[in-house]
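Incident log entry.

Two folding requests arrived from the same account within the same minute. Monitoring flagged them as a possible duplicate submission, but the sequences differ. Recording both here for audit purposes.

Request one:
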Amino acid sequence: MDPVATEGSRMACEDAFEAVWSRARGYRGWLTEGQARLLFSCALGAPQPARILEIGSYEGRSTVVLATAIAGTDGSVVAVDPFVDDWKYGSPTTRRSFEAHIAQAGVDGHVQLIADYSTAVRPGWSAPLDVLFIDGKHDVVTVLDDLRWARHVRTGGVVLVHDCFSSVGVTLGVLSLLRPGSRLRYADRSGSLARFEVGSVGLVDRGRLLAQLPWWLRNLALKLLLRARLGGVARRLGHDSPYDPY
């Protein structure tokens, strides 16, 4: 492969990401730049045309990043979010913001919204997926159900889980992947956004997942300090933010 062409392609991808992030970071949400870059890379690297399913869209920060990565192809992002009337995570106003942001970014032709609970949609789903992004309700029961979507992800495909090592419910759900027969092997993470690959899972893979638990316990300790209004102590531990680690 021509190294000049390869470098040109890399720079074009970087420019595309910087452009979409300059827009998406203005939407309310919890996705960091590093996490957005990981989503963009996974969507861009999927076989095209890719089918991506996102659980939990909020105002569309992650949706726009994913959809922009596959713009110019026949790929699609299926966004699953009930937009429940909740003070923090959603409301009819949130849905209007989501739809406006998708249109403003020019990716509405690549996004299909299913305004429903992921647990209600999953039993009737049959289409194969290339990328699955899980950022829905964080209780362990819902997370375990959302992980069942992975059966639709092709071998070699990617499953990304947000708040994987910062939420008790999400982390406990993900620890179910240690069981025999699991098809999701831990690859890496950006903050608390963990990337799993669909394929065979060995002891080394399980060990790499378990190795993230000290970082999870550190995040739980930071949350307790913030709840106790001990932000100064949290800063001394390296957490220079009033918000929970994610």
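Request two (distinct sequence, not a duplicate):
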Amino acid sequence: MADDLFLVVGLGNPGPAYAGNRHNVGFMVVDLLAERMGGRFKAHKGRADTVEGRLAGRRVVLAKPKSYMNESGGPVSSLRDFFKVPAERIIVVHDELDIPWATLRLKQGGGDNGHNGLKSLTKSLGSKDYLRVRFGIGRPPGRQDPADFVLKDFAATERKELPFHVDRAADAVEALVGGTLEAAQNTFHVDGPA
């Protein structure tokens, strides 16, 4: 059993066409964490790209599933089995429509709130007990379909601020790896931009 190992999963859709989408903010955060670790993603047999290293003094595997968002659960459960990581040490970084833009919310367990990536994960893992770093993208304007909204790139004004907020989300992951959920919540549960 990998006693201290954390599996940090960024959710997104693979391929350049999706790279700047709101739905891919999870990939953006784990890309930054890989940079901080000085590692490069490599293909893993579990249908994901992974990089192994250390964050906050703990062993960590960062992962980006190579499946589409709504099928993320398969690759993540393969990685869980391969690295023998319990759900409580899996951290999932994902976009969240029901949270205002750039607001972070950290939690353990809970429902999927209509998020297809989380739905797939919960089903494949057979557990809701994984940790979540929820990155607020806000609701779509007017009558825009949420499914279209999440597959659009961030707006120009959001893109200006995006690196700062991705950096904060990466800090939140490190806080979860190196400490407790409660301590990380106390640090990062402040409101988004004024």
